[in-house]
Write a structure and sequence with these properties.
Distance between the termini: 39 Å
CATH superfamily of the largest domain: Aldolase class I
Structural class: alpha/beta
Radius of gyration: 22 Å
Bound molecules: S-adenosyl-L-homocysteine
CATH class of the largest domain: Alpha Beta
CATH topology of the largest domain: TIM Barrel
Order of helices and strands: HEEHHHEEEEEEHEHEHEHEHHEHEHEEE
Strand content: 15-25%
Number of strands: 17
CATH architecture of the largest domain: Alpha-Beta Barrel
Largest sheet: 10 strands, mixed
Shape: globular
Length: 385
């Protein structure tokens, strides 16, 4: 554990010269961390000030990771005074930092209400990836995923999502080159907050990440893939894991609601609008479940005509999962079969497994798991039943 005050300190930075609590107005402070650039400008405009102050404020927080309003030297006194009185910048608090021998770092972040989520930093040759969570737990019940076993409590706010990147940048002194929305949760079941946070990731006045460098991974919530196509240009990864409905119904039960004959066309349509290159299909390799030559053939047929990259993921074990990873030879044979058919296919390197930071191993600490049974409505909001 480091002695960094932000690692050990409060999750909210209060302005230095804030009004004593007894005289503080009852109005809740606005959390600037969760605002995109437009909202930041709108906030300042609503105060009768020029919008560019809002842009500068946004830049201070995300580009310079500065939280002290007094240090934001190009903001007018009037703006700073108003911010001191009415705003705050909430950052997640790391309660654990677990480095792995391969350089991967897992942070366990505690949120204001005591819930915990996990964020993973994965350095590689010439690039680095931050794996960001979108929900406390997950409401979907993919059979091979440890997060699913945790149940679901709530969506993360846009502040809590972008706060993970803010935190990593602050802690590491640099911005990761790539972001994958592949941590805890189903990002398309928390649509608005995730899109807002991804906009901040891509903003030139914030983290400046190009569209190919921000990837959203979904289990396949079809209406929200269609919605995403209209408002975002990020790369799309889809957790496929099976080449036919019968098997996918078992492994990724959301398939019963949005079967392959809806999922595949929605993904193809996603590629059409913007000049997006291809869909990444994630395929977890489960011993004797989905890894035979027959499955490879069916997968090739399924993806015919869709610009694709298949990312094979060796299954990462967790207690009582009931699954084992396919042996390396079978994964290689499966990959070669795909490659021979003309598909781009890679095997994902397992990173951070000894700190339980690998795909499907993130568990955080989900309080009140009873909200597991939820319905995902078309607008993407997860609601407790
Ligand atoms: N809910 C989103 C985001 C999670 S991304 C989604 O389903 O896409 C995490 C990826 O790891 C998903 O493809 C998920 O299916 C996969 N995964 C889950 N558990 C795993 C495990 N135990 N081993 C390997 N991959 C796993």
């Amino acid at each position: 554990m480091s002695s960094d005050p932000i690692i050990n300190g409060n999750s909210t930075i209060s302005p230095r010269s804030s009004v004593p609590s007894s005289t503080q107005p009852m109005k809740q402070r606005i959390d600037l961390m969760g605002l995109d650039r437009g909202e930041s400008e709108a906030l300042v405009s609503a105060w009768g000030l020029k919008p560019f102050h809002g842009r500068n404020l946004f830049k201070w927080i995300h580009k310079h990771t500065v939280l002290d309003f007094d240090a934001m030297s190009d903001l007018s006194k009037a703006v700073r005074g108003r911010l001191q009185r009415e705003a705050q910048i909430t950052i997640p608090r790391a309660v654990a930092e677990e480095p792995s021998a391969d350089g991967t770092i897992k942070w366990v972040l505690q949120l204001a209400d005591g819930q915990r989520v996990e964020t993973v930093f994965i350095p590689e040759e010439g690039r680095s990836t931050l794996c960001v969570s979108s929900q406390v737990g997950c409401a979907l019940e993919c059979r091979f995923c440890a997060t699913a076993r945790q149940g679901f409590n709530r969506n993360l706010s846009s502040s809590e999502i972008i706060g993970q990147l803010w935190y990593a940048k602050h802690r590491l002194g640099r911005t990761p080159t790539n972001i994958v929305m592949m941590g805890m949760g189903e990002p398309l079941a928390n649509f608005e907050a995730v899109v807002r946070a991804m906009n901040v990731m891509q903003d030139d006045f914030a983290y400046m990440l190009a569209k190919q460098r921000v990837t959203l991974s979904t289990s396949g919530i079809v209406p929200n893939i269609q919605r995403l196509a209209k408002v975002s240009d990020v790369s799309l990864a889809v957790s496929l894991h099976a080449p036919d409905n019968a098997l996918r119904d078992q492994l990724v039960p959301i398939n019963r609601k949005y079967p392959l004959e809806q999922l595949i066309p929605a993904c193809r349509a996603y590629l059409r609008g913007e000049k997006r290159r291809r869909i990444t299909w994630e395929y977890v390799m489960l011993d004797n479940v989905n890894d035979s030559d027959r499955h490879a053939k069916a997968l090739i047929r399924l993806l015919e005509g869709t610009p694709s990259k298949v990312n094979l993921i060796p299954f990462n074990p967790f207690p009582n999962s009931g699954f084992a990873s396919s042996p390396k030879e079978r994964i290689d044979a499966f990959r070669m079969r795909l490659i021979r058919s003309g598909l781009v296919a890679t095997t994902r390197k397992t990173r951070g497994d000894e700190i339980a930071a690998a795909c499907g191993q993130l568990i955080g600490r989900v309080q009140d798991r009873s909200r597991r049974h939820i319905s995902i409505s078309v607008d993407g909001l997860a609601r407790a039943r």
